[in-house]
Specification:
Elements lengths: L7 E5 L4 H12 L3 E6 L4 H7 L4 E4 L5 H15 L4 E4 L14 H28 L3 E6 L12 H20 L5 E8 L6 H4 L9 H5 L10 H12 L10 E4 L6
Parallel strand pairs: 1-2, 1-4, 2-3, 4-5, 5-6, 6-7
Bound molecules: nicotinamide-adenine-dinucleotide (NAD).
């Protein structure tokens, strides 16, 4: 028997990295998963097989999120768990960052996370409760140079998580944050070009002490907090970073 037997879950960012590993882990634990991404979650669905299905959605587009959530809920006949994992970021000097790039990172990481919560919550309430697991970052807990937009967006996710946890605490909806440190996924390549003139030592300080995590190590935490084993966990931000934030 799996930790998530019979649960119906929406997972964003399921086409790659942590989201893909989480979708695979949730399915292995018995959940039915709606694998959401800009495009390409079909590969994840093929790997999972069974009754998993893919939905393309830009989470920064509120009306697209509303349609995606409604479609996922109609297909699954309800909703128990929402995992917000999609995200983007890059390094840039703040005094050179194009405002449109700042806006884009906030639009996906923070607004997108709010939109999925916004449109999933009525279904969770209608079903008598559920769990939302949001992806923050160590960069939402400590300052990271050349990452103002990313840090601001992830700090926003931390407080969004806490606010929703409190607001819906008495309606049987838990809201939890996962804050990974360096994890071997595609997003690392977006953070691979250090801005000209940047001091690499400042980046090194933020690196996971021993090694980066494997996405499956983060996926295990999603499964735990979303399952009944995590039933008393809400409003918490769980760092999984090998000891960056101590
Ligand atoms: N990998 C790390 O070191 C690390 C550390 C801390 C936090 N995180 C967070 O983990 C989450 C997952 O990232 P990852 O490391 O697996 O990277 P990844 O790039 O492998 O996966 C991110 C996924 O999000 C999807 N996505 C991006 N914009 C989207 C949009 N507008 N709508 C829908 N989907 C969109 C991408 O297509 C991709 O499949 C992100 O929120 C990221 O900020 C990652």
């Amino acid at each position: 028997m799996g930790k998530l037997d019979g649960k119906k879950a929406i997972i964003t960012g399921a086409g790659s990295g942590i989201g893909k590993a989480t979708a695979i882990r949730f399915a292995a634990e018995g959940a039915r998963v709606a694998c959401v991404d800009l495009r390409g979650a079909q590969d994840t669905v093929s790997q999972i097989g069974g009754d998993a299905f893919a939905l393309d959605c830009n989470i920064a587009d509120a009306s697209a999120v509303e349609s995606m959530v409604d479609s996922a809920v109609a297909t699954m006949g309800g909703l128990d768990i929402l995992c917000n994992i999609a995200g983007i970021g890059h390094f840039a000097w703040s005094h050179e960052e194009p405002p449109a790039e700042f806006d884009k990172i906030l639009a996906v990481n923070l607004n997108g996370t709010f939109y999925t919560c916004r449109f999933a919550l009525p279904h969770l309430l209608a079903g008598g409760g559920g769990v939302i697991v949001n992806t923050a970052s160590t960069a939402g807990l400590i300052g990271q140079p050349w990452s103002a937009a990313y840090c601001a967006s992830k700090g926003g996710v931390v407080m969004l998580t806490r606010a929703l946890a409190y607001e819906y605490r008495d309606q049987n909806i838990r809201v939890v944050g996962i804050a990974p440190g360096g994890t071997n996924t595609n997003i690392i390549s977006s953070f691979s070009s250090i801005p000209e003139g940047a001091d690499y030592k400042l980046i090194n300080k933020l690196m996971t002490p021993v090694k980066n995590a494997d996405p499956s190590e983060i996926a295990g935490a999603f499964a735990f907090v979303a399952s009944d084993e995590g039933r008393f966990i809400t409003g918490s931000i769980l760092t999984i970073d090998g000891g960056i934030v101590c």
